[in-house]
């Protein structure tokens, strides 16, 4: 858990201005210890002090909505697993009294002062208005930190037996105030969504996690094994309040006969979003998440260990050295093998050996042909035989990408200049036939690194030498860009799976299409 996301704790209630500028604006949870302890309800509603009889007398005639769950004591977001039952509040209180004397079935009540819509954000919903209708009887006051807020709803939550809500997030800021009993809340930042496997965004319970955290099946939800590493726990006693920012997942465990009131309001960010900008923000956010996903895939890659041998097979691809493709100009900017640093020579050897081994393996499976009368013979691929093509998206699975990934920009440049001068057909085979999606991403990132360290003139010279090796330079560019786009496409699919939920088929880009 990043320090910037740590739960804050306050013994004194800040002013409304301080709350808005220093707490709410950071979108990080905060607990306010004892901030509502002066509510008369804290003592008058307490079941140990005759609070159930007090509530029955004052508001027992009001109709409320209770939720009966087939999965009690856990209340999941799946609307099919529970039933909402309207009943007089006095009837529910009767169940509470009975439970104090006997072990009963789990049941939960929610009273919503503004007719909260079914399936919008919470785990247990209702439509009773007695919170609004009888303010004098229920002894509640809006906390001072909410002065000036345009509240979306005020809700009363009450459970008979111990209960747990499944992990979910709300589309509003939330101030949860404990009146009687105790709640333990586990919190996850929105960035932990991949570990919680949110329900598909098109579903009725899209704000809920699909993982049963009390008994997770890691074969179905493997990322959930890391979920608790991103979590924070807080225990709330009567009189405490917890600020839960919008989008933060939270799982709530309630002791028996716990009562709480919460306030929902729209965040300033959501309130300020203009409808006509939604599509743009959606694309920007998806692009940011996709870029971050690609970074994470590369950072997970392992670092190869170089073998200590340094003998390069100089006979390999010597025929390609006779190709007269701007050779005299290239030689002025190319490196001879004996000029390479030992680490660069070793990396070059590794790359040449990989291409040689793959081509030899291909030779055993199909006839060999070549794009040129000079140089290394490369096997052709077709739809039935993908001998030389590969769809690798993980760095640790691609030996070529692993070698390139750890190279410093200067060494990378020296290696490819030496390869273009000494092994041009090997370089051609590497790019056209062995370059995987992750390899193409690594290659272009290394290009960006050497660009940052060189003048525009030197950049142009390098790319003239690099692409001058290929009979068809556009085919080489297409191979690199297609691989790079394929890598990004897989990262995008990962983003949809982790953050949106559901299975999506992402179409491939057409060849030569501009994605800038």
Automatic annotation (TrEMBL):
Residues 131-280 form the JmjC domain. InterPro entries: Cupin_8, JmjC_dom. Gene3D superfamilies: Cupin. Residues 306-327 are annotated as: Disordered. Belongs to the JARID1 histone demethylase family. This is JmjC domain-containing protein. It comes from Gossypium mustelinum. The lineage of its organism: Eukaryota, Viridiplantae, Streptophyta, Embryophyta, Tracheophyta.
């Amino acid at each position: 858990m990043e320090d910037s996301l740590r739960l804050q704790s306050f013994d004194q209630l800040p002013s409304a201005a301080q709350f808005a500028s220093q707490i709410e604006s950071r979108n990080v949870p905060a607990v306010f210890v004892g901030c509502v302890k002066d509510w008369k309800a804290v003592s008058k509603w307490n079941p140990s002090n005759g609070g159930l009889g007090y509530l029955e007398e004052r508001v027992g005639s009001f109709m409320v909505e209770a939720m009966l769950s087939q999965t009690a004591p856990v209340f999941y977001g799946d609307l099919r697993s529970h039933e909402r039952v309207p009943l007089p509040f006095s009837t529910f209180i009767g169940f509470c009294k009975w439970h104090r004397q006997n072990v009963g079935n789990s049941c939960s009540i929610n009273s919503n002062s503004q007719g909260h819509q079914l399936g919008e954000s919470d785990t247990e919903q209702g439509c009773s208005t007695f919170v609004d209708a009888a303010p004098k009887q229920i002894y509640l006051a809006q906390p001072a930190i909410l002065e000036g807020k345009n509240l979306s709803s005020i809700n009363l939550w009450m459970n008979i037996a111990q209960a747990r809500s499944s992990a979910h997030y709300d589309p509003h800021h939330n101030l949860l105030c404990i009146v009687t009993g105790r709640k333990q809340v586990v919190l996850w930042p929105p960035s932990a969504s991949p570990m919680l496997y949110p329900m598909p965004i098109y579903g009725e319970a899209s704000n809920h996690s699909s993982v049963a955290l009390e008994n997770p099946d890691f074969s179905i939800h493997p990322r959930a094994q890391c979920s608790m590493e991103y979590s924070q726990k807080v225990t709330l006693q009567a009189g405490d309040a917890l600020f839960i920012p919008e989008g933060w997942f939270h799982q709530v465990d309630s002791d028996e006969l716990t009562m709480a009131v919460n306030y929902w309001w729209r965040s300033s960010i959501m309130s300020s979003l203009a409808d006509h900008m939604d599509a743009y923000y959606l694309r920007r956010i998806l692009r940011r998440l996709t870029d971050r996903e690609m970074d994470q895939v590369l950072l997970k890659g392992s670092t190869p260990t170089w073998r200590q041998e340094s003998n390069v097979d100089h006979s390999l691809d010597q025929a390609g050295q006779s190709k007269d493709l701007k050779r005299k100009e290239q030689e002025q900017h190319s490196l001879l093998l004996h000029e390479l640093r030992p680490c660069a020579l070793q990396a070059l050897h590794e790359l040449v050996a990989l291409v040689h081994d793959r081509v030899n393996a291909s030779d055993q499976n199909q006839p060999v042909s070549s794009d040129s009368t000079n140089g290394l013979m490369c096997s052709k691929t077709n739809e039935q035989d993908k001998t030389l093509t590969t769809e690798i998206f993980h760095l640790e699975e691609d030996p070529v990408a692993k070698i390139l990934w750890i190279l410093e920009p200067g060494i990378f440049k020296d290696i490819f200049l030496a390869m273009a001068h000494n092994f041009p057909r090997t370089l051609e085979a590497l790019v056209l036939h062995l370059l995987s999606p992750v390899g193409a991403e690594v290659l272009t990132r290394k290009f960006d690194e050497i660009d940052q360290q060189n003048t525009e003139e030197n950049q142009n010279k390098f790319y003239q030498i690099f692409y001058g090796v290929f009979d068809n330079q556009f085919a080489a560019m297409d191979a690199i860009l297609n691989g790079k786009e394929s890598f990004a496409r897989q990262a995008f699919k990962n983003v949809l799976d982790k953050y949106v939920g559901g299975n999506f088929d992402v179409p491939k880009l057409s060849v030569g299409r501009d994605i800038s």
